[in-house]
Write a structure and sequence with these properties.
α8 runs antiparallel to α9. The protein has a 5-stranded parallel β-sheet with strand order 4-5-8-1-9, with helices on both faces. The chain contains 24 helices and 12 strands. By secondary structure, it is an alpha/beta fold. A hairpin with a 5-residue loop joins β11 and β12. About 35% of the residues are buried. The protein has 4 domains: about 170 residues, no CATH class; about 130 residues, P-loop containing nucleotide triphosphate hydrolases (Rossmann fold); about 70 residues; about 90 residues, no CATH class.
């Protein structure tokens, strides 16, 4: 006869699965329900962070789960004696329950007041090692218990440290209750641990640095937040002799904005250079690939803007993990992980010959898509208030007492001037700047996002049009673009007398007038912003000729 009753065994199985499931999927709460039955405290469909949500509400069931794990663990441990040995299945359940207890006792977020891990957290956790190891020996150091190799105490300690960081990084930075945001949080977790965490713990963690993550989505949707959550949550081995985690004190995320640098500077930033390798190279320089530790990541933002000549060199690093500084032949090894992001359609760039197909396939093994604010708010309109509160809190981090008032002012301005149907073309980045404008001027109008008809003239006979960077630049002639959409143009479109090129110009101008910026129009139409500007100006010229 088994040590556990049938009901206890079902609870033990559910607890064992909780330890390996994705906490941001509905599966987690369903397993909690199986363990606790009528004592289960219901809440949201998935774990999420939002305004006013207290820590106790997020982890409302953990204390009950922990108590249940302790009771079952002690019952099995009491029977793990030479005279009454646990069978293979009971030993497996006991090991998993013991790990649940160890995590809950030494690492669980419930035990800490601050969900968002910052500063000296690695050092604080390392100090827990002696107490952790004593408990580990108490539960898992039994003579008659068989332990797999991956149950090594230091490895378990490192995995718990990683789980804690990953949850905190995702939970604290990916805000919202919409279905698309829930999927995003779950997707980030899988990018860190894969869909099978048991396999990850057994050994896949060693190979995750070889797997590149590609983050796609419109500009301003938080791709850098996703990159940070992944890059700062990688596995860091623990050294019991030094009582420290590998990589502590090293830069774990090195970011390069490829759109902001010239090709020569990008090469120097990534690969480094030797003294005299080019004009101005007055000393040797260590590039990001060399500075990145094995536990770190290099984040290549705007990968779609990468010059073809550098695409070849980057492909070689992805294939061989080797590179050389500019001006030398010595082969060096890249030990970290690549994370890339783009707001452009790489498939389209490949088709146009602007992006290498082989590099594209090297990048897209793990893809994450960040949803637009339009998608989020269509599903959960209340998320706007949560985002405003989050941004205000981060902006006024040293003045928490002012957060509520500024958040209310911002929401009042949005309700009065934009309304609930506004589609937020600049996404979270636009909202962030509007919040700051409210703080500074008590109004959230941003000239770069205002309709073209509202922009002041840049001079006699010239209308200011937003450039790709969102600044004003001389664009079309004095007539606002809206006035160029005359009945004659619409008539030509409807009766089929426009050429295909003219239709493209008309539609590009139509989208541009709605969004008010060349770069946002380019994103929406999946073309280059210079092409947008050219088509808008050609449409303006043809409209004047028709007048």
């Amino acid at each position: 006869m088994g040590v556990l009753t049938a009901q206890e065994k079902r609870r033990a199985e559910a607890l064992a699965k909780i330890g390996y499931c994705n906490p941001f999927l509905p599966e987690r709460l369903e397993l909690e329900r199986q363990v606790l039955g009528k004592r289960f405290r219901s809440g949201d469909a998935v774990i999420n962070s939002r305004e006013g949500l207290q820590r106790e509400q997020v982890f409302r069931n953990f204390d009950l789960l922990y108590d249940q794990a302790c009771q079952l663990t002690e019952k099995l441990r009491g029977k793990c004696q030479p005279t009454v040995e646990l069978n293979v299945e009971e030993q497996r359940l006991y090991r998993e329950l013991a790990l649940f207890v160890l995590y809950g006792r030494h690492f669980s977020l419930v035990n800490h007041p601050d969900v968002n891990r910052r500063g000296l957290y690695a050092e604080v956790c390392a100090e827990k090692w002696p107490a952790f190891f004593r408990d580990y020996q108490h539960y898992l150091g039994l003579r008659h218990l068989q332990l797999p190799e991956y149950f090594d105490a230091a490895h378990c300690f490192a995995i718990f440290f990683q789980i804690d960081r990953a949850f905190a990084n995702i939970f604290s930075s990916i805000i919202g209750t919409s279905t698309s945001i829930a999927r995003l949080r779950a997707s980030i977790w899988e990018s860190i641990f894969t869909h099978d965490m048991q396999r990850y713990v057994r050994g896949i963690y060693r190979s995750m640095g070889d797997m590149t993550t590609l983050i796609t989505g419109e500009s301003g949707t938080g791709k850098e937040l996703v990159a940070r959550a992944i890059g700062l949550s990688r596995y860091q081995p623990f050294d019991p002799r030094k009582k420290s985690f590998h990589g502590v004190g090293s830069p774990l995320l090195l970011s390069v904005n490829l759109a902001a640098l010239a090709p020569t500077l990008i090469e120097s930033e990534l690969f480094g250079h030797c003294k005299g390798s080019f004009t101005g190279a007055i000393a040797d320089r260590v590039g990001w690939l060399e500075a990145c530790p094995a536990e770190g990541s290099v984040f290549l933002d705007e990968i779609g803007e990468l010059d073809p000549s550098i695409q070849v060199k980057l492909l070689r690093v992805l294939q061989t993990r080797q590179f050389s500084r500019l001006g030398e032949t010595l082969q060096r090894e890249f030990q970290g992980k690549f994370i890339a992001a783009t707001n452009r359609q790489l498939e389209t760039l490949v088709h146009e010959g602007a992006f290498r197909k082989d590099l594209y396939y090297r990048l897209c093994a793990d893809r994450i898509h960040t949803p637009s604010m339009r998608q989020q708010l269509a599903d959960s309109p209340q998320d706007l208030q949560d985002w405003v509160h989050f941004i205000v809190g981060r902006t006024l981090r040293d003045m928490p007492e002012e957060t509520q008032g500024v958040a209310q002012e911002t929401m009042q301005w949005i309700d009065l001037h934009l309304g609930s149907d506004y589609d937020w073309p600049g996404n979270i980045r636009e909202l962030e700047q509007r919040v700051r404008n409210v703080i500074i001027r008590r109004q959230g109008e941003l000239s770069a996002y205002a309709p073209v008809s509202k922009l002041k003239s840049a001079g006699p006979g010239v209308t200011a049009a937003p450039s790709a960077a969102g600044h004003t630049a001389a664009g079309t002639r004095a007539e606002p673009v809206q006035s160029l959409v005359k009945d004659r143009s619409l008539e030509k479109l409807l009766n089929g007398s426009m050429s295909l090129a003219e239709v493209e110009q008309w539609y590009t101008d139509y989208v541009y007038r709605r969004l008010g910026r060349y770069d946002l129009t380019a994103e929406r139409l999946a073309i280059d912003w210079r092409t947008v500007k050219d088509k808008v100006q050609k449409f303006a010229e043809s409209a004047r000729v028709d007048q």
